[in-house]
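Narrative of activities, Objective 1.

The group set out to show that a structural description can be obtained from nothing but a protein's sequence at a throughput compatible with the screening campaign. Below is one input-output pair from the validation batch, recorded exactly as produced.
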Amino acid sequence: MDSMITSAARALARGDALGALKRVSLREDAPALALRGIAMAQLGDLARAKTLLRNAARAFGPKESLARARCLVAEAEIALASRDLGWSAKALDAAGATLQRHGDHWNAAHARHLEIRRLLLTGRLNEAEQMLLAVKAESLPPPLRTIHELAVAGLAMRRLRTQPARAALMRAERYARQAGIPALMAEVESAALVLRTPAARQIVKGSERPLLLGEVEALLASTALIVDACRYVVRDASTAVSLAGRPVLFALARALAEAWPCDVARDELLAKAFGARLLDESHRARLRVEVGRLRRVIRPLADISATSRGFILAPRNAAEVVVLARPVDEEHAAVLALLADGESWSSSALALALGTSQRTVQRALDSLAEAGKTQSFGRGRALRWTTPPMPGFATTLLLTSPFVSE
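Output recorded for this entry:
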């Protein structure tokens, strides 16, 4: 490798993309194309970066497997940054194996961390944890160690373990400072901000207040009966009943919990559970049926009794009933929560992360766009969606877990 290529590679390792481009911007050989692609990615031109890396991979040829593997890993990193999550895990794993076989252990570790980060984004927490445990973190250089600790923190936050998350973020900050890369330090600060901004709301007896992630963790460990509107679960200290996929029953449970210790009028329950405006006897009959179903489902946790004007919730073992809600109530809150990370997402990536169909996500995006809450750019398969981060609230999808595996 010639001196200009070596110098450009060192500049990229320091995060100096412009310095690297000064050395290789006029060259069209395969190593220069690869370095230009990485530099353009660092500067934010992801589409151009992707094209350059693919051209580099073709220019290297089939015999230069190590260089091609590096290009594939770099392209996967660009795909992650642009929230294009549909890459082949087998291809990335094969590239990592090639790098490991040729002694490029750091890039092999980088490939594993890219897959870990994708697993975290798509809610496959158990798989991400297994891959993290297999990484020998103590042998990684500071930049990769920072990324590793950020992944550890991300997993801990999604599992509502704030102390391990805080410890991992402190380690990430230390390694980012050792690396001396401003982008890494900014990423650590952004991740740490999640612990200092409200992640949910607590509603008790008609009053509400925002909760930090640590307070959410403490609430879920308490003895209260919790109607969790983030995960669509009704739980107490020992029992949890999932109502994910049963929106009517959950709407009834939430309405009864928000009114506790008072009852809720039948017409109000009909409006909240069914959206009914013009009520007739058929609606009231259906309400009796659905309340009966809810009563059977949550019997280990609470009773539901009829009153003269409606129904009332009575916990069996808890002294208090709490509703845990999202920071802002929104019909398409899960989509907004993903978009609020400030990155641009494709509808296919959103569908993969949420565990739903792309058509469902597209309808949600269209609705949000009409309300001015999202914006799109690009066309066809390059169409991407984004929204500005919601000020004052945690912007990571931490609590929307009807789709997230524990």
